[in-house]
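Quick one from the shared queue. A colleague (R.T.) flagged Mini-circle protein as missing a structural entry in our internal table.

Convert sequence to structure tokens.
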Amino acid sequence: MTEEPARWTRATVFPDMWVDPADDPRDTEGPGPEGELATLQDFLTSYRHTLRMKCDGLDAEQLARRSVPPSTMSLLGLVRHLAEVERDWRNWLGEGDPAPKLYGERDADFLGAVADPAEVASAFTDLRREQTATDTALSAYPDLSTRVGTDNIAIRELLVHRIDEYARHCGHADLLRECVDGRVGQ
């Protein structure tokens, strides 16, 4: 990157927000959801929205732009990585052979994030498909204390781990987006 982008936000109400509250798809008004499962799902949904928002409006080159050398991290790489880990979490549910990796060898999710519009479209399709498949698989376990798989892991732990993964990577996405075009906000 040859020049530093100016910091900016689309929000007009609060200068530290990504968008104005009325335009934010992450509904935070009113009471929160009832129950542990609904609360966990609500947090996961919010982080999924945040990731998509951080990628919104960028072209393939911007999405594939690496942060700082030697890092391979990019917004597109994060999308591909989260598709990969959604698939991997389903492997924890059963005792059979794991599903094959989407993108190949370790770090291929980041290394293969290239500035190609077809690759961008494919990555977002992969992410939606893998999220839906994992959500569907986990819906078979309404009791969060149910233990599954060869590691005897609780469904609750899998859900919390997913939230942790998205939260951490949304933090990365904040910095990556600011580096791309200067846009900031929660």
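The first strand starts at residue 147 and ends at 148.
The chain has one domain: 49-181.
Added to the table.
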